[in-house]
Amino acid sequence: MSNVFVIGATGKIGKRLGPMLVSAGHNVTGLSRSSANDNWYQQNQVASVNGDIIDISVEELSDLMAGHDVVVFSAGAAGSGLDRTQAIDGDGPVKVIEAMKRNNIRRLYLVSAFPEAGRKKDLGEGFEFYMEVKKQADAEVAATSLDWVIVRPGTLLDEEGDGAVSLGKAIPYGTVKRGNVAKVLASLIDLPLIRREIIELTDGDEAVDVALSNFAKA
Ligand SMILES: NC(=O)c1ccc[n+]([C@@H]2O[C@H](COP(=O)([O-])OP(=O)(O)OC[C@H]3O[C@@H](n4cnc5c(N)ncnc54)[C@H](OP(=O)(O)O)[C@@H]3O)[C@@H](O)[C@H]2O)c1
């Protein structure tokens, strides 16, 4: 059983992940920026602490994270502007790393982006910047001595998971159901031996547990 701190707990991935972790016996706490989600937290037995990753200080975040042993970062600016993309997707993980170090928390799971997403689609300056910032955050995390796992999902579909995925260090680009991303994160949290890895993820035809077991063996 782990004490899991989730940034982005009420996002479309986070809302699927939290209940999975709770049913697996973990204690889950979300960083909540709005009381609008209070009912969801109560109904799903996920604890919440108030904070906004944009303006929270490292010291405040560190205090909120005390007592946890796993951190998941699945927050995102979701196209709400370049400044917010930098502050949430870029600077957020950097604050998280520092807060984890202060608490001696070792395990971090970062939801990043698939490098080939949006290529040749001319999705505009905002998307290009988003991809750049996501890569910077990956580099910040990978440069630490933490036990990190960076998950790079393909383009997300807002669907429940059927548990059939393709994953590996480098795989062809594709889409992935958010429910499958949540399942992979939940399973990874129960497989601490998989650490310091970047995992690309799409929908596929392997069961999550089999795919992760094959990944671990490889
Ligand atoms: N869209 C794609 O195709 C795609 C592909 C690959 C990876 N990703 C990445 O996947 C991750 C999760 O995706 P998703 O679909 O679950 O995202 P989402 O539904 O947009 O959820 C984002 C989460 O971040 C939280 N958040 C936003 N601003 C915040 C702030 N200032 N302080 C604290 N929390 C804040 C939101 O809180 P509230 O609930 O309060 O709004 C929400 O819980 C993101 O990092 C995204 O970049 C997306």
From TrEMBL:
InterPro entries: NAD(P)-bd_dom, NAD(P)-bd_dom_sf. Pfam families: NAD_binding_10. Residues 8-190 form the NAD(P)-binding domain. It comes from the Bacteria. This is Putative NAD(P)-binding protein. It comes from Marinomonas communis.
